[in-house]
Design goal:
Blueprint: E1 2-12, E2 45-50, E3 64-66, E4 86-91, E5 94-98, E6 104-107, E7 114-118, E8 149-159, E9 162-165, H1 172-179, E10 197-201, E11 209-213, H2 228-236, E12 240-246, H3 257-269, H4 271-274, E13 278-283, H5 290-301, E14 306-308, H6 317-331
Parallel strand pairs: 1-3, 2-4, 9-11, 9-12, 12-13, 13-14
Antiparallel strand pairs: 1-8, 2-7, 5-6, 5-8, 10-11
Length: about 325
């Protein structure tokens, strides 16, 4: 349940500020000595790994990134201000390569770990620095060092933040196609999905998140039945679960059977898996009799906060996305 999110960007540190050529010009001091200040250092480009980022979406449109230049030195031995560093937050697990050589520059594995990708140029020395017994009036200063420019290839092996689970034909593939850019194969027979489909869900409420529809689980999956353990392993790596239920499959005499089937399999496979945050979603509310079946299910479930949607018509989907974001953000706190 991994896929590679990639970006090619160019980063540029700041140029160092030029040193100043200046001489004291004060009353009663006709031949003041040199007093040119040094230039400021150029800003660094610094990457910082953070748990708050989940994708490389920020580089989709912004591919040229530059730190501030150092400021020129001034007279009266005033040093130029250092250029401001450019700090860029990236997701944990990001790999940064030199795009031209293919060499790995850094693998970000620790939260909060800063790394200077491009170092700012050193500021040039003012003419004060070059005064000597043989040259009391130096009329030159150093230029600032130039910036570093690098073209980077950034890779992130994405793990799904959200796993959509449910019995075959619950509508998982349809839902992921509606809320993300994924376009899975969709048909009305069991096990249409033979591998997890992943998509990135973009919202105007914050960071995008990665969602995967997990192939239909059945009774006995923890022992390898159906697509079995292969996909239960995938679910372990998600942060939260969306438990999708086809409302037309609900037996009104035993309304929680379909719900319990999946949860029993999760618990039998892994206690930790069963404890993951889970959003229960009743799908296919566009079908005849769905509202009545949903009422019976909700009554039987009692304390559960249940989302009602129709993935086909889109009804309730936006509210579900907001709910996912709300719970997902809590897992990153």
């Amino acid at each position: 349940m991994k896929f590679i999110d990639e970006a090619i960007i160019t980063v540029q540190s700041g140029d160092g500020g030029r040193g100043c050529v200046s001489f004291r010009r004060e009353k009663f001091i006709p031949r003041g000595g040199p007093d040119g200040g040094d230039g400021g250092k150029g800003g660094d480009v610094v990457f910082v790994a953070t748990a708050g980022k989940r994708t490389l979406y920020q580089f989709r449109y912004k591919k040229q990134l530059k730190a501030k230049n150092g400021v020129y030195g001034q007279g009266n031995q005033k040093k130029g201000k250092n250029g401001e560093d450019l700090k860029i937050e990236i997701p944990l697990g990001t790999l940064v390569f030199n795009a031209e050589t293919g060499l790995l520059i850094k693998d970000f594995v620790k939260v909060g770990e800063p790394f200077i990708i491009a170092k700012g140029g050193r500021g040039g020395q003012g003419n004060t620095r070059f005064k000597s017994s043989t040259n009391r009036t130096p009329r030159f200063a150093q230029p600032g060092e130039p910036c570093e420019t690098l073209t980077l290839k950034i890779e992130l092996k994405l793990l799904a933040d959200v796993g959509i689970v449910g019995l075959p034909n619950a509508g998982k593939s349809t839902l992921i196609s509606v809320i993300s850019s994924a376009r899975p194969k969709i048909a009305d027979y069991p096990f249409t999905t033979l591998t997890p489909n992943l998509g990135v869900v973009q919202t105007d409420k914050g960071e995008p998140f990665v969602v995967a529809d997990i192939p239909g689980l059945i009774s006995g999956a923890h022992k390898g039945a159906g697509l079995g353990i292969r996909f239960l392993k995938h679910i372990e790596r998600t942060r939260i679960l969306v438990h999708l239920i086809d409302i037309s499959s609900v037996d009104t005499n035993h309304p929680l059977d379909v719900y319990n089937t999946i949860n029993i399999e999760l618990a039998l496979y892994s206690e930790n898996l069963a404890k993951k945050p889970q959003i229960v979603v009743l799908n296919k509310l566009d079908l005849p009799g769905a509202k009545e079946a949903a009422d019976i299910f909700q009554s039987a479930a009692k304390e559960k906060d249940i989302e009602l949607i129709s993935a086909i018509t889109g009804k309730g989907v936006n509210h579900l996305i907001l709910r996912i974001l709300e719970i997902l953000d809590k897992t990153y706190e």
